[in-house]
Amino acid sequence: MTIKRLGLDIDGTVTSPKTFLPYLNSSFNKKLSLTDITQYDLANLLNITQEEFFEWLKSNEETIYSNALIAEHAHPILEDWKGNYELFYISARGNHLLDTTKNWFTTNRVPYHHIDLIGKHDKINSIKKHQVDVFFEDKHDNACDIAEECDIPVILFNTPYNQGAVPSGVKRLDTWPEARNWLQQYNKNGRA
User: Fold this and answer.
1) CATH 3.40.50.1000 segments of the chain
2) Residue 183 phi/psi, 5° resolution?
3) pLDDT tens by residue, 117-141
4) Rounded to a whole number, what is the distance in angstroms from the first to the last CA of the chain?
5) d(Cα 127, Cα 152) in Å, to the nearest integer?
6) Which of helix, strand or coil describes residue 124?
7) For domain 5-17+69-189, which CATH number applies: 3.40.50.10700, 3.40.190.10, 3.40.50.1000, 3.40.718.10?
8) Are 11 and 91 contacting, i.e. CB atoms less than 8 angstroms apart?
9) Which of 63, 111, 153, 178 is the most exposed place for a label (fewest CB within 10 A)?
10) SUPFAM superfamilies from the entry (predicted)?
11) Which neighbouring-strand residues pair with 173?
């Protein structure tokens, strides 16, 4: 199979997984580092209710997403890929953040062909609709579900909050250069 269309999560994948930390620390009087974020459920980690967390997120998301730092080494690799692959970003962000998201992509000169903000973590229908060939993700259960339901390879960027066993279709990698090398090998051999 020749890979033509890359599916990419945004938050914690293209943006740094540390993006939320200064806002969490400031708002909740914490001194958290990335190694302290050992679960995806931040409400549980902060010892607040889901409702309290979503209210906090709702009032802060535009600022956080507008000022997000791009993940280390992601920019030159995405820039290199834009001529060889179609870049489809599929994110759990709500569609009300489309202008904020596109402005961030423009400001940071991050190439894209399509942005789909679906407002939920279940990305399977969007991945199938856009006929994505491989997906890049940071959320453990998303990576596992996508690999199994869509029968495509998934790159899971390794973080303290996404540990756990993964099926054979999920490749856990630490860096964007490793992802670039994986994709080159896959295209060369039909597997990596």
Assistant:
1) 5-17+69-189
2) -65, -40
3) 999 888 999 999 999 999 999 999 9
4) 12
5) 10
6) helix
7) 3.40.50.1000
8) yes
9) 63
10) HAD-like
11) 157
Residue 57 neighbours by CB distance under 10 Å:
14
**Residues making up the chain, counted from first to last:** 192
Q: Tell me if 82 sits within 8 A of 14, measured CB to CB.
A: no
pLDDT at 1 over 70: no
Q: Kindly give, in sequence order, each residue whose CB lies less than 8 Å from that of residue 156, ignoring residues fewer than 6 positions away.
A: 137, 138, 140, 143, 162, 166, 170, 171, 172, 173
Distance CA 121, CA 80 (A): 28
Whole-angstrom Cα distance, residue 60 to residue 23? 8
Tokens of 59: 């009032």
pTM here? 0.94
Provide the token pair at 189: 């051999």
Tokens of 36: 């302290």
Beta strand 154-157 with 86-91 is unpaired
CA distance 76 to 79: 5
